[in-house]
Write a structure and sequence with these properties.
By secondary structure, this protein is an alpha+beta fold. The protein has one domain (10-105): START domain (Alpha-D-Glucose-1,6-Bisphosphate, Chain A, domain 4, 2-Layer Sandwich). Helix content is 17%, strand content 50%. It has an 8-stranded antiparallel beta sheet with strand order 1-2-8-7-6-5-4-3, with helices on one face. The protein is globular, with a radius of gyration of 15 Å. The termini are far apart.
Length: 123
């Protein structure tokens, strides 16, 4: 698969929003499988991952989330909580939106309510 990406960080009201656009030359079914199948997700992430209709466990369990919405072949959205995250912080939200354009699949990845420097305890 070929990949091009665009990184944009937007700082709004002390909340970070991260948006990435990926353009892949691959069948939609393969891209969907990479995002929603535990085996392919593990290969893609490089660490043990699992995904069910209710939850997602990423990076060997360091990050967990609850599935918010799934529209097959179009959208998957889940919460995101890192194991070191302060319990008082709200979960952030990760959304993958898939569209077909010409012979490519466009993946728009949005991560909202992303922990900012202050919430991470960084200078």
């Amino acid at each position: 698969m070929n990949e091009k990406q665009l990184n944009i960080k937007i700082f709004i009201n002390n909340i970070y929003k991260l948006t990435k656009i990926y353009k892949l030359k691959a069948p939609l079914k393969e891209v969907w499988k990479a995002l929603t199948n535990s085996k392919t997700l593990t290969k893609w992430q490089g660490q043990k991952c699992s995904i069910t209709k209710n939850k997602v466990i990423l990076f060997g369990g360091d990050t967990i989330g609850k599935i918010i919405e799934i529209k097959p072949m179009e959208k998957i959205s889940h919460t995101w909580r890192m194991d070191y995250q302060n319990k008082k912080w709200k979960d952030s939200i990760v959304t993958y939106l898939l569209t077909e354009k010409n012979d490519k699949i466009i993946i728009k990845l949005e991560h909202t309510n992303f922990p900012n420097k202050k919430r991470k305890g960084l200078p």
